[in-house]
Amino acid sequence: MSNIFDLPALWRQSLMPASFNGARFHCEANGRESGRRIVQHQFPKKDLPYAEDMGRAAREFNVRGYCIVFPYDSGDSLYQRDYRQPRDQLVRQLEAEGPGTLQLPTQASQLVVCPRYRLTEEERFGGYCVIDMTFMEYGLDPQTYAPAAATATAIVQTSEALRSQVLLWLSALPLPPAIGLNR
């Protein structure tokens, strides 16, 4: 009889190394939070409210990462005898201005900003640090975002069709009588 551990773990084959803007770290746990932005309207003398959907809420990622000593220096920046180098590289990226790319092991990469992080080191766990990071979805700046060409084309086509309908409707109206041309 087989058990669940005998099944092929396809998800393990697609795991990605965790990183933020190229600064790699080990990922102990991560979570994503989002939902819908709902405004609840309640009216006087009405028993039923109205919930208005205002779109998807921005995604927020909570990540617990760590850097740890490695028995020997490998060619990889994450696997070194001095854990402080990958730690410092990650901290520099977390404190850098502007958005960055967050790659989590089981999720697609995201363009995010890091509003806060907490780095914890304990003497009893020498050669090891935990970094709790919060990331927020960067999204698009509405002042610099240009609509897609397909959207702009659709708007132009719709307005031209509406203009044609109005001109056709106006041409079907009878002309008003001429006023004061014959004396």
Structural overview:
Residues 15-106 form the DNA circulation N-terminal domain. This is DNA circularization N-terminal domain-containing protein. It comes from Bradyrhizobium septentrionale. There is one protein chain. The protein is of the alpha+beta class. It has a domain at 13-137: Elongation Factor Tu (Ef-tu), domain 3. The protein contains three helices and nine strands. It has helices spanning 10-13, 84-95, 149-172; strands at residues 19-20, 23-24, 26-33, 36-41, 50-56, 60-68, 100-103, 110-121, 128-137. The strands form two sheets. It has a seven-stranded antiparallel sheet, covered by helices on one side. The chain has a two-stranded antiparallel ribbon with strand order 4-5. A hairpin with a 2-residue loop joins β1 (19-20) and β2. The chain is elongated. 14% of the residues are buried. The model has no long low-confidence stretch (mean pLDDT 86).
